[in-house]
Amino acid sequence: MIVVTGGSGFVGKALVRRFAEQGERVRVLSARAEKTLKPLGESVEVVQGSLYDVESLYRAMIGTHTVFHLASAQWWGRKADLERIDIGGTQNVIAAGRSARIGRLVVLSHLGASSASAFTLLRVKGRVEEMVRSSGLAYTIFRSGVVFGQGDTFVNGIAQLLRANPFIFLQPGSGEGLLHPLYIGDLIEALIKSMEHLDTVDQTLGIGGPEYMTFNEMVRTIMRVTRAPRLIVPVPPWTLRAFAAILSRFFPYFPLTAQWLDLLASNRTASMSTLYDLFEMQPRRFEDTILTYMRSRRYGFELLRSMLRRRPRRIA
Q1: Higher pLDDT, 248 or 99
Q2: Alpha carbon distance 25, 41 (integer Å)
Q3: Using CA atoms, how far apart are residues 118 and 38, in angstroms rounded to an integer?
Q4: Which residue of 6, 190, 261, 273 has the smallest Cβ count within 10 Å?
Q5: Are 92 and 54 in contact (CB under 8 A)?
Q6: HSE on the CB side for 160, CA within 13 Å?
Q7: What is the distance between the alpha carbons of residues 182 and 208, in angstroms, rounded to a whole number?
């Protein structure tokens, strides 16, 4: 039995879908995702509960050999949400995992994560990593580059921001920070293959796609693919952070958030050969992949829909 937390999120949903296609028995801890997960098949079992209910966590993990802990508030949450969900939730997952004697805990983190980081998201992810390493459980931590795909927040968020102004795009700083984009399908493949590789146990693995690119290059590529040319105007990052703080009070799902900017705070790259060396995978290129789905999307409508979404209710 496999357990997935955060099964209704971008990565979690893709992972559960892949397990369902393979006929693997997977158990998803969820408070409100039954309608979206049940149609995936009889092999998907939804356990009603949350990260804050240790009893439901224990119930989900009984008889489990691998737990994929993917739940996070990294895109929509404020600092308090990150501490409550990412740090507090991970503490509860570890406690329940010990009691249920799970085989391994697999956690998704970010390249650049460090408990000493000056940036909230990377600092929180660094603390989560430290907790997992000292948990006494067998673990695998994946430090991933920016994950992109049809439902991602970061890359599709850039496409939405290009629609927010028909003339200019406000770029934080010079845009020269290096990113290491990774396609969601390749990430899912790596997560699944890690279960078969004992040499990934008790390891922290930095993974990314087949290319490095600056943020400026990524924006220009998205402009080209989505046919939304804009004049790029560099502005001080602190200006955009202040702007994002104001916007988030009124539009919790506006694409520009403090966490979004945290991912641009430093170079975030890993060895290009990791996926091939470990799993014999050849990851997909950024532009070739987004060409298959970005041109047909209505990002202006998606931006409006994001702005009208309400902040999710807290679950006790």
Answers
A1: 99
A2: 10
A3: 41
A4: 273
A5: yes
A6: 19
A7: 5
Q: What is the CATH number of the domain that holds 19?
A: 3.40.50.720
Q: Is 0.85 surpassed by the pTM of this model?
A: yes
Check pLDDT > 60 for residue 35: no
**Pair 96, 57: CB distance under 8 Å:** yes
Count the domains in the chain: 1
Contact 108, 232 (CB under 8 A): no
Find residue 5's DSSP bridge partners. Answer: 29, 69
Residue 133 lies in a domain: yes
pLDDT, tens digit, 9 for 90 and up, residues 57-116: 999 999 999 999 999 988 776 788 888 999 999 999 999 999 999 999 999 999 999 999
Kindly state whether residue 291 falls inside one of the protein's structural domains. no
Q: 10 Å Cβ neighbour count for 32?
A: 13
Mean pLDDT, the chain, integer: 90
Q: Determine the Cα–Cα distance for residues 141 and 281; give it in Å rounded to an integer.
A: 18
Q: 176: exposed, middle or buried (C-beta count within 10 Å: 0-12, 13-18, 19+)?
A: exposed
236, burial (CB in 10 Å: exposed 0-12, middle 13-18, buried 19+)? exposed
Residue 20 within any structural domain of the chain: yes
- Tell me whether residue 100 is in a domain: yes
The torsion angles phi and psi of 259, rounded to 5 degrees, stand at -65, -35
Question: Measured in whole angstroms, how far is the alpha carbon of residue 154 from the centre of its chain?
Answer: 9
Structural domain range at position 10: 2-147+183-207+268-282
pLDDT over 70 percentage in the chain: 94
Q: Nearest 10 degrees: CA dihedral of 59, 61, 62, 65? A: 170
Distances (CA, A) of 297 to 14, 180, 221, 308: 20, 24, 16, 18
What residues pair up with 68 in beta bridges, in sequence order?
Answer: 4, 106
Residue 53 has pLDDT above 70, yes or no: yes
